[in-house]
Amino acid sequence: MSALQFPEAPADKKALEEGDALSPRFDAAGLVTAVVTDAGDGMLLMVAHMNAEALALTLETGIAHYWSRSRKALWKKGETSGNLQHVVEMRTDCDQDAIWLRVKVLGHDATCHTGRRSCFYRTVGLKDGKATLAGDGTRPLFDAEETYREPA
Amino acid sequence: MSALQFPEAPADKKALEEGDALSPRFDAAGLVTAVVTDAGDGMLLMVAHMNAEALALTLETGIAHYWSRSRKALWKKGETSGNLQHVVEMRTDCDQDAIWLRVKVLGHDATCHTGRRSCFYRTVGLKDGKATLAGDGTRPLFDAEETYREPA
Q: Is the C or the N end of chain B the one with fewer CB within 10 Å?
């Protein structure tokens, strides 16, 4: 449990947008969006969510923590796979409802649970009036099935 | 109104993650998260949301459209300021609940409503046990107050 607390977001727009206090605008579920890019080449690696605890732990430890909406649990990214995210820089946006993490990924340098470096491995196009996907050719960097296997 | 429709997201995880159909997983409010970066240098410009209509129009026109949660309206980004976003590439992530747009910004090359190039103009740090913000030195590229003034 982190002791770090965040002040309530100010109603005053100027204070929110130009002030020097981080006062995240958590949504109804208590979450802000987190965008994660590689600090080296800027590749978009993943989009996730943080509650106050995940955000506080990320700030205090320098290792990215999220809130898993599917598991409804705090999520230290890479705890199972070894692909921890070391935070090089954290930013927030004008209205403080999104967090940007520039990270260095440890382990296999892979972020996606499919084993790929990035979750964004498919491009979107239009073909015969339908929105289609095409892989960008990236391949898994670790054996996801083996790594995430439940203990027997 | 766009005629482009998206199929329902498949329950099968493999089809969702490895298939070639864009079947966005819209949330309870009918939205997916959109992450917008500069196609030139990869700078994170903004995070926004898209409903099916905004996504379809973006695909069909090549100009970024979003759903404004505050105004509850379709939002052709840059319509007032001239800072339209020309989409160079669109991607989606493994579970198809996020869209990545790599864009070229027209007009003033500014995306933030404060007039700055990016909405992410403040870094987050820890100081005396408090989460603080520091500006990155970027300045407005256009007069936001003048541009967004309501007609008298």
A: C
Q: Of A92, A112, A126, which is closest to B133 when you measure between CB atoms? A: A92
pLDDT in tens, chain B (152 residues): 678 999 999 999 999 999 999 999 999 999 999 999 999 999 999 999 999 999 999 999 999 999 999 999 999 999 999 999 999 999 999 999 999 999 999 999 999 999 999 999 999 999 999 999 999 999 999 988 888 887 66
What is the chain A residue with the closest CA to B94? A119
**B79 CB-near residues (< 8 Å, 6+ apart):** none
* Interchain contact, A35 vs B43, CB within 8 Å: no
- Report the relative pairing of strands A44-50 and B32-38 from DSSP bridges: unpaired
Return the structure tokens found at A63.
């290792």
Q: Which domains does chain B have, with CATH numbers?
A: 13-114 (3.10.20.810)
> From the candidates B58, B94, B95, B118, which should be mutated to test the interface with A, based on the most A CB atoms within 10 A?
B94
Option in B56, B99, B119 nearest A94 (CB): B119
